[in-house]
C-alpha cells in the first residue's frame, strides 16, 4: 500500500499506574493496543508498523496478528525508544516499499475510529501535514507563578489528536533535521512544522481521546460495555 501507519505503543504509562506498559493493559478482554489496531485494520489497507516497548515485542506481535487476520503480511513490530520521538523514528526506519504517506498514531487512543484514520490519510498532500483536532472546551488562563495573567482566546486553540499524517519524504527529512539539532518536539506536527512545512487540522472525534490516567481507562471501558452505562 502507498500508506503506512506507525502505531507508537512503547510508552510505559506511568500515570496509569498499571503493572504492564499502557498499550498492553486490558480495556475489556482486549488490550489498548488491540483495540487501536482493530480500527487501524478497518481503515483503508496500509502497511502497519507497531512500535513496541522493549521486552514486549512478542506481546505486540500477538496483538498485531490477532488484529490483522489475513492481512498479517502488512504488519511489522519494531522496538521503541526512550521518547515518543525516538519511537516514531524507529517506526520510520522500518518502512519498506513504496510508501508515500505516513500516519503516526498513538496506541493510547484505542477508540479512534477507522473513519478518522482514513480522513487524515486522504487530506495529506505533497507537502501538507494533517492532524485531527477538537475545539477546546475548558476556560484557559495564562499564568505566571500564582498570578493569573490573562484569559487565553479559545477560538485560536484546538486540542490535537492522532493519527497525524504527512508525505513520507518530507517527514523523513524533518526527522533527520530533528536528529541533527537534538530538538525534542511535542508531537510530529510540531517537528514537521519546525522544518518549514504547512500543517492543517481536520475535525477529530471525542472518542479518540488519549488514555493517560485511570479515569480515561474507565471511560473507554464504559464506551465499550454493552449497556453503555
Ligand atoms: O505518554 P503518552 O500517552 O502521551 O504517549 C503517547 C503515545 O506515544 C503512546 O501511545 C505511547 O505508547 C507512545 N510512546 C512511545 N514511546 C515512548 C513514549 C511514548 O511509543 N518512549
From TrEMBL:
<comment type="pathway">
    <text>Isoprenoid biosynthesis; isopentenyl diphosphate biosynthesis via DXP pathway; isopentenyl diphosphate from 1-deoxy-D-xylulose 5-phosphate: step 2/6.</text>
</comment>
<keyword id="KW-0479">Metal-binding</keyword>
<comment type="similarity">
    <text>In the C-terminal section; belongs to the IspF family.</text>
</comment>
<keyword id="KW-0414">Isoprene biosynthesis</keyword>
<comment type="function">
    <text>Bifunctional enzyme that catalyzes the formation of 4-diphosphocytidyl-2-C-methyl-D-erythritol from CTP and 2-C-methyl-D-erythritol 4-phosphate (MEP) (IspD), and catalyzes the conversion of 4-diphosphocytidyl-2-C-methyl-D-erythritol 2-phosphate (CDP-ME2P) to 2-C-methyl-D-erythritol 2,4-cyclodiphosphate (ME-CPP) with a corresponding release of cytidine 5-monophosphate (CMP) (IspF).</text>
</comment>
<feature type="region of interest" description="2-C-methyl-D-erythritol 4-phosphate cytidylyltransferase">
    <location>
        <begin position="1"/>
        <end position="229"/>
    </location>
</feature>
<dbReference type="GO" id="GO:0016114">
    <property type="term" value="P:terpenoid biosynthetic process"/>
</dbReference>
<feature type="site" description="Positions MEP for the nucleophilic attack">
    <location>
        <position position="154"/>
    </location>
</feature>
<dbReference type="GO" id="GO:0019288">
    <property type="term" value="P:isopentenyl diphosphate biosynthetic process, methylerythritol 4-phosphate pathway"/>
</dbReference>
<protein>
    <recommendedName>
        <fullName>Bifunctional enzyme IspD/IspF</fullName>
        <ecNumber>2.7.7.60</ecNumber>
        <ecNumber>4.6.1.12</ecNumber>
    </recommendedName>
</protein>
<dbReference type="GO" id="GO:0008685">
    <property type="term" value="F:2-C-methyl-D-erythritol 2,4-cyclodiphosphate synthase activity"/>
</dbReference>
<keyword id="KW-0548">Nucleotidyltransferase</keyword>
<dbReference type="GO" id="GO:0046872">
    <property type="term" value="F:metal ion binding"/>
</dbReference>
<feature type="site" description="Transition state stabilizer">
    <location>
        <position position="15"/>
    </location>
</feature>
<comment type="pathway">
    <text>Isoprenoid biosynthesis; isopentenyl diphosphate biosynthesis via DXP pathway; isopentenyl diphosphate from 1-deoxy-D-xylulose 5-phosphate: step 4/6.</text>
</comment>
<feature type="site" description="Transition state stabilizer">
    <location>
        <position position="22"/>
    </location>
</feature>
<keyword id="KW-0808">Transferase</keyword>
<dbReference type="GO" id="GO:0050518">
    <property type="term" value="F:2-C-methyl-D-erythritol 4-phosphate cytidylyltransferase activity"/>
</dbReference>
<feature type="site" description="Positions MEP for the nucleophilic attack">
    <location>
        <position position="210"/>
    </location>
</feature>
<keyword id="KW-0456">Lyase</keyword>
<comment type="similarity">
    <text>Belongs to the IspD/TarI cytidylyltransferase family. IspD subfamily.</text>
</comment>
<keyword id="KW-0511">Multifunctional enzyme</keyword>
Amino acid at each position: 500500500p502507498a500508506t503506512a501507519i506507525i502505531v507508537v505503543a512503547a510508552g510505559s504509562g506511568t500515570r496509569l499506574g498499571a503493572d504492564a506498559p499502557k498499550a498492553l493493559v486490558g480495556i475489556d478482554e482486549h488490550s489498548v493496543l488491540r483495540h487501536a489496531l482493530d480500527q487501524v485494520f478497518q481503515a483503508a489497507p496500509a502497511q502497519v508498523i507497531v512500535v513496541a516497548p522493549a521486552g514486549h515485542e512478542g506481546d505486540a506481535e500477538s496483538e498485531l496478528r490477532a488484529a490483522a487476520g489475513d492481512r498479517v503480511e502488512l504488519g511489522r513490530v519494531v522496538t521503541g525508544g526512550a521518547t515518543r520521538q525516538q519511537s516514531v523514528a524507529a517506526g520510520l526506519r522500518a518502512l519498506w516499499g513504496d510508501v508515500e504517506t505516513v500516519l503516526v498514531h498513538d496506541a493510547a487512543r484505542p477508540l479512534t475510529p477507522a473513519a478518522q484514520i482514513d480522513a487524515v490519510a486522504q487530506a495529506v498532500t505533497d507537502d501538507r501535514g494533517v492532524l485531527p483536532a477538537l475545539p477546546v472546551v475548558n476556560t484557559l488562563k495564562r499564568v505566571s507563578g500564582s498570578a493569573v495573567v490573562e484569559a487565553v482566546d479559545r477560538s485560536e486553540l484546538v486540542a490535537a489528536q492522532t493519527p497525524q499524517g504527512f508525505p513520507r519524504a518530507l517527514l523523513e527529512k524533518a526527522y533527520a533535521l530533528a536528529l541533527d539539532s537534538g530538538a525534542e518536539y511535542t508531537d510530529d506536527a510540531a517537528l514537521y512544522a519546525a522544518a518549514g512545512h504547512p500543517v492543517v487540522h481536520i475535525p477529530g472525534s471525542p472518542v479518540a481521546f488519549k488514555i493517560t490516567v485511570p479515569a480515561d481507562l474507565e471511560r473507554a471501558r464504559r464506551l465499550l460495555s454493552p449497556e453503555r452505562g
